[in-house]
Design goal:
Sterol_Desaturase_Related; transmembrane; transmembrane helix; 0% strand; mainly alpha; 168 residues; membrane
Length: 168
């Protein structure tokens, strides 16, 4: 039942979404490599920093109170020291920059396996099925990669920073 409404919304908004995509495509000179690599990188970084800024504001100020009241952690350490936030932000930026080669390799692997670089967007069903598949792969991949990062060598040289951060 819900799928019917989502499909209807997708179909009715499809023209709008496609027209916006056409504008993006045209503004970048129809350069598929630029759109796929740098567009994805820019989008994910902007999305991360926009969402993270709201949570960081709460961590640094302890406001709004209703958000603090519903947090999961029990450690009442407000405000979070600004130097800790800056240190963490620096590390996040480094990690985001280090992700660029993975975007490039991933894109070129997709091209090798027949990535469709057409201008038209995929159907709702295709997007839905690919999201389900990617969610499953991400969950499994995250779990096993996190276990590998707890091996002594990787933990000492890479993953320890993850455990040094104490969230408020």
């Amino acid at each position: 039942m819900l799928q019917k409404y989502i499909l209807h919304l997708w179909e009715t908004s499809g023209d709008f979404v496609q027209s916006q995509w056409d504008k993006i495509f045209a503004s970048l000179g129809s350069d598929v490599d630029t759109i796929a690599i740098w567009g994805t990188f820019t989008y994910t970084c902007l999305l991360y920093w926009i969402v993270a800024s709201f949570y960081t504001f709460i961590d640094v100020t302890g406001k709004p109170k209703f958000a603090v009241k519903h947090r999961i952690q029990d450690i009442p350490s407000y405000p979070v020291p600004l130097n800790s936030v800056l240190k963490l932000s620096r590390q996040v930026l480094i990690n985001q920059i280090l992700s660029i080669p993975f975007y490039m390799v991933g894109y070129h692997l997709m091209v090798l396996r027949g990535y469709d670089t057409k201008k038209s967007l995929p159907s709702f069903q295709r997007v839905f099925l690919e999201l389900l598949f990617c969610a499953a792969v991400e969950e499994i991949g995250f779990y096993y990669s996190h276990r590998v990062l707890h091996l002594p060598f990787f933990y000492k040289h890479i993953h320890k920073k993850h455990h040094e951060w104490k969230s408020p």
